[in-house]
Amino acid sequence: MRLSYGFVRGNRLTCLYHGWGYDGDGACVSIPAHPTLTPPKTIKVARYACVEAAGLVWVAAEGANDPLRAPDGRWLPAQTIDLDLTLADARAAVAAAAVEAQAADSAYAGSGIETSDDSPLVTFVDARSGSRVLCALQAVADDRTALHVLVDASAGDVKAMQRAYAEWGRRIRRNQGRASLPAFVPPAGTVAPTSYLA
Amino acid sequence: MKLYDYVLSSDCYKVRLLAGCLGIELQTIPVNVFPGEEHRSPEFLAVSPLGKIPVLSDGGVVLQDAHAILVYLAKRQGDAGAAWYPDADAASCAAVQQWLTFATELDGTIGAARQHSMLGKPLDVDRARSGAREQITALDDHLTDREFDGSAWIVGNSPTIADVAVFAQVAVAGDGAIDLTPYKAVGRWLKTMVSVPGFSPMPGISAIR
Amino acid sequence: MCDDQFTRSYWYAVARIEDLPEGRPRATKLLDVDIDLLRTQGQATATTRPSDGQAIHLPTKEQYGHVWTTLSESPRDLYAMPEFEEPGRRLVTAGAITVSCSGLRVVENFLDMAHFPFVHTGILGEEPHTDVAAYDVELREDVDEVWATKCEFYQPKAAAAAEGGQLTRYMYRVAQPFSTVLYKTCPIREGAWDLIGLFIQPKTQTECDVHSFVLVFDDSNSDNALLQFQQMIFMQDRMILENQVPSLLPLDPRLELPTRADASSIAYRRWLKAHGQTYGVLPQA
């Protein structure tokens, strides 16, 4: 039974099935069927390094030991979009849509799209407002990717940005698998890849 | 008030859920829909010619449709029920109707997937599940927009019978092997519903916290 | 194809008797074999439907409210439940509910009391009454069954007929690898046991139809109230069972750590292992 079906009580992650409680280290600290028993130290669930940054919860992939390199600044969520695409195809679709968002105002000629072949992140600047957009890609399965779209909290009309980029993410979802995706060539100055998965 | 009820029916659950939230005591009369198919029996058709559950009987009033019963319960409670069915405002009232229709349509997708997965009813389950995913995606988009409006609810700023009707279908999607984890706004809304005063679960929904 | 001789040696319930009337054939599956059920001249028949070759007629019997069949030419006797003959008892059969997991997982969940406060909250259990007291477990070699006796658990609403909380006494019986019966103190008749049982029909290693029954003394509840209670409890379990990972039952004790409360499950897994159970079991590494 997955612990995600459970509930958090008193800072303990509690399993829905038998109410076993686990602390932040993944150690089992209570077994309700035996209230007086101190659970043996051997009862432990796997624990992954976890950080909150840039408006997202980040989990280290197994074996990763590089420090997290999340974008600076404060970010607010627009929407999480479920895509029936591989991580690579999702990245290409997001980058292609970012080109469009960048080109919406030809007067704008600021910083470009930042990503790289093994990065779970795509950042770019919204042409109309000049504020930044962060896309974090999470490979949920081989052919499924969750796209977390966030906007810069310091944007002028941040509510409008959230709404606009929620809709932007939905457009990527609607267009997925429609036609062959345009090839994406990362522009110069891509961000350093990280070994973290959003 | 008597409710002709079946424990595994989302439509019956809608009525039990709203009654609990409104503090209405219902006398439930269980109908053996599965495996007995009693809703097709002459005895039940005498109560409900449409042969559907739930049926609500209150004095001389007999209602044979879940959404009609929701409207009736909310209106019957006067001021206490007004927020659950905001019919004083044209736009809100119509929006509630729209989402009640959405809930009815979920019966052909989530409801069909449940019937197949639980009771082996022969039907095209892949089609039912993909239809369900499209509808739940639309709900997720709507609830995301509502959050930008500062509301956690489908219509307005408090729970309505639209939330009740849609919740009773979506919350048990897992019974039909439909995974709700991709739909983050839906997930937040489901959790918020569970904390509404008077909330009661149906089997398949965990209410423990 | 199931080549597990232990599993093949048993009878399996495949339908309720009233769901197989004259002239209404049913298609089903047992141990990966497609089967057609039909009643002709009052007699239930079961026939395999092979993709090639000859259809084989399987033996059938009608007992405990259900039609039973077997893939074995010399099956073990169907286990005895003399309570079915006792006057005054009511039998409610709840129909087959499909569950996507090994049927062995369904049996094991049925034997487990520790989940009551969390899965059947407010009905079969309630915090803070989570303690599972020690109970006895035995392998009854004469009948080749696993029993757990002297089980006790606090229950807020132990049965459809129960008024308020009570300490309920239980006995659990695993009569077949895919069939289990619970004997529970009857809330209205001193000294009597109410029976609740599962006849599990493994269709494949990871999907089963669960036929269940309630056989009780109860003067106050309608058959439909008993049915709804049974279906409510089972659907609460189904949500857990369908989310079990892996869906096959592991027999390696290192994979799922048991505690003292799981004594019945430990005995059940050992019994399966001793009989060389492979169907519905996670292959050993």
From TrEMBL, chain B:
<dbReference type="InterPro" id="IPR036249">
    <property type="entry name" value="Thioredoxin-like_sf"/>
</dbReference>
<feature type="domain" description="GST N-terminal">
    <location>
        <begin position="1"/>
        <end position="81"/>
    </location>
</feature>
<dbReference type="Pfam" id="PF00043">
    <property type="entry name" value="GST_C"/>
</dbReference>
<dbReference type="InterPro" id="IPR036282">
    <property type="entry name" value="Glutathione-S-Trfase_C_sf"/>
</dbReference>
<feature type="domain" description="GST C-terminal">
    <location>
        <begin position="89"/>
        <end position="209"/>
    </location>
</feature>
<comment type="subunit">
    <text>Homodimer.</text>
</comment>
<dbReference type="Pfam" id="PF13417">
    <property type="entry name" value="GST_N_3"/>
</dbReference>
<dbReference type="InterPro" id="IPR040079">
    <property type="entry name" value="Glutathione_S-Trfase"/>
</dbReference>
<protein>
    <submittedName>
        <fullName>Glutathione S-transferase</fullName>
    </submittedName>
</protein>
<dbReference type="InterPro" id="IPR010987">
    <property type="entry name" value="Glutathione-S-Trfase_C-like"/>
</dbReference>
<dbReference type="InterPro" id="IPR004046">
    <property type="entry name" value="GST_C"/>
</dbReference>
<dbReference type="InterPro" id="IPR004045">
    <property type="entry name" value="Glutathione_S-Trfase_N"/>
</dbReference>
TrEMBL record, chain C:
<feature type="domain" description="Vanillate O-demethylase oxygenase-like C-terminal catalytic">
    <location>
        <begin position="100"/>
        <end position="274"/>
    </location>
</feature>
<dbReference type="InterPro" id="IPR036922">
    <property type="entry name" value="Rieske_2Fe-2S_sf"/>
</dbReference>
<dbReference type="InterPro" id="IPR050584">
    <property type="entry name" value="Cholesterol_7-desaturase"/>
</dbReference>
<dbReference type="Pfam" id="PF19112">
    <property type="entry name" value="VanA_C"/>
</dbReference>
<protein>
    <submittedName>
        <fullName>(2Fe-2S)-binding protein</fullName>
    </submittedName>
</protein>
<dbReference type="InterPro" id="IPR044043">
    <property type="entry name" value="VanA_C_cat"/>
</dbReference>
<keyword id="KW-0560">Oxidoreductase</keyword>
